């Protein structure tokens, strides 16, 4: 069977997107493992299925390169938003709801005439209760091998640690071990954050089930929350990632985290599955 796909990226976080409203992908875990391979497949940070929803305007399912399904991906949500805005709604609907494994997310498209500029995703409240993140500890602030972490869920588990420089952060030497530490019942995404000022920071991420990626939307949101909780930054920052910059705000009035950033088409293709 030949599968038509679209490759998109948001701040360098690249996924393969499939219009799956007709349920054409029967085994998404297997397809994700094959299509994500950067040597024998198309190459991506995973597979995203764009599906019908009974409770929102569109639904997103996201699979990692190892075949595991993730609850949420912030960068992918913006790409799904642009895909739907242009191809489902014909640019007639600038606000709509996206169903994800972490609940319904409201999205606003920012445009310049008929041209897409960026998208803002309401990522909702951060989860700080240890059992709900989940983290097997009495507090969401923990230590692993003497290193301090602040744990946050944005629908998926994150552990944020502060470093003097992201350039020298032990992303590859320690990230894989931190991800699967026994303190994380469902593993965790690991963020290394360098604070530059009260409204500017840098971050690198070791993603659960993937490895280092150029960006992570939920990880960016978790990083800002950790910055605020540790009195490192204000509630609104620009966060520099390897693949670009995201604007993140943790609103004081309703506690929602807002993420604004790009979403770009890369190419279309077909692959035999």
TrEMBL record:
Q: What is this protein called?
A: Diaminopimelate epimerase
Alphabetized Pfam families for the sequence: DAP_epimerase (PF01678)
Main localization (coarse): cytoplasm
Self-association or partners: how does it assemble? Homodimer.
EC number(s) for this protein? 5.1.1.7
Which sites bind substrate? 13, 64, 74-75, 156, 189, 207-208, 217-218
Similarity remark: Belongs to the diaminopimelate epimerase family.
Coiled-coil segments: none
What is this protein's function? Answer: Catalyzes the stereoinversion of LL-2,6-diaminopimelate (L,L-DAP) to meso-diaminopimelate (meso-DAP), a precursor of L-lysine and an essential component of the bacterial peptidoglycan.
State the organism named in the record.
Hallerella porci
- Does the record bear Cytoplasm in its keywords? yes
Active site, renumbered: 73, 216
**Catalytic reaction list:** (2S,6S)-2,6-diaminopimelate = meso-2,6-diaminopimelate
Marked site positions, Could be important to modulate the pK values of the two catalytic cysteine residues: 158, 207
Name the SUPFAM superfamilies for this protein: Diaminopimelate epimerase-like
The entry's keywords: Amino-acid biosynthesis, Cytoplasm, Isomerase, Lysine biosynthesis
List the subcellular locations.
Cytoplasm
Task: Tell whether Metal-binding is among the UniProt keywords.
Answer: no
């Amino acid at each position: 069977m030949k599968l038509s796909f679209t490759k998109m990226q948001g701040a360098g976080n690249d996924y393969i997107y499939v219009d799956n409203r007709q349920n054409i992908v029967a085994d998404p875990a297997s397809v994700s493992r094959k299509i994500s391979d950067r040597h024998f497949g198309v190459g991506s940070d995973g597979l995203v299925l764009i599906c019908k929803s009974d409770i929102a305007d569109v639904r997103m399912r996201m699979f990692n390169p190892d075949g595991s399904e993730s609850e949420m991906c912030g960068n992918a949500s913006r790409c799904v938003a642009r895909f739907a805005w242009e191809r489902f709604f014909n640019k007639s609907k600038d606000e709509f709801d996206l169903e994800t494994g972490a609940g319904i997310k409201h999205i606003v498209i920012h445009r310049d005439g008929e041209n897409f500029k960026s998208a803002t995703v309401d990522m909702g409240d951060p989860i700080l209760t240890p059992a709900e993140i989940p983290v097997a500890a009495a507090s969401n602030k923990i230590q692993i091998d003497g290193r301090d972490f602040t744990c946050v869920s944005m629908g998926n588990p994150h552990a944020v640690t502060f470093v003097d420089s992201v350039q020298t952060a032990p992303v590859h030497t320690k990230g894989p071990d931190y991800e699967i530490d026994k303190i994380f019942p469902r593993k965790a995404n690991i963020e290394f954050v360098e604070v530059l000022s009260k409204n500017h920071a840098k971050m690198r991420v070791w993603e659960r089930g993937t490895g280092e990626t150029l960006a992570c939307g939920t990880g960016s949101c978790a990083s800002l929350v950790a910055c605020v909780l540790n009195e490192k930054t204000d509630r609104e920052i620009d966060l520099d990632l390897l693949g670009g910059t995201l604007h993140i705000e943790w609103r004081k009035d309703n506690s929602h985290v807002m993420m604004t950033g790009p979403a770009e088409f890369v190419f279309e293709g077909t692959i035999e599955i």
